[in-house]
Amino acid sequence: MKKVLLVLGIVAMGLQSCKKEELCNSSCGTIINDGIDNGCYWLEIQNECSGNNKVFCFDQNTWYNNFVGDYFCVTNEPSW
Fold it and tell me: 4, 13, 37, 58 - which has most CB atoms within 10 Å?
């Protein structure tokens, strides 16, 4: 009986490891901070894939309409 349970446990673990991993967008993440410095309207964004933080400058309109905690994608930017 122990062998049967062991085999079933191994099979169950193998099936769980075959689950499709969630996809993430390497140029998107969560805004964690914002500010204005020397004419730069910046948003600090934490990448949803890597967990890395990076500061980006945007135009005033983009900065004004996006808030800390929002999900945000940076176009024309490789993964960071």
Answer: 58
The single-letter code of the amino acid at 63 is: W
Answer CATH for 23-80 from 1.10.8, 3.40.50, 2.40.50, 1.10.10: 2.40.50
Is residue 80 a contact partner of residue 52, using CB atoms and an 8 Å limit?
yes
pTM: 0.70
For tokens 């993440």, what's the residue?
A: 29
Query: Which run of H or of E encompasses 28?
Result: strand 28-37
pLDDT tens digits, residue range 12-67? 555 454 444 568 888 999 999 999 999 999 999 999 999 999 999 999 999 999 99
Q: Say which residue the tokens 């309109």 belong to.
A: 61
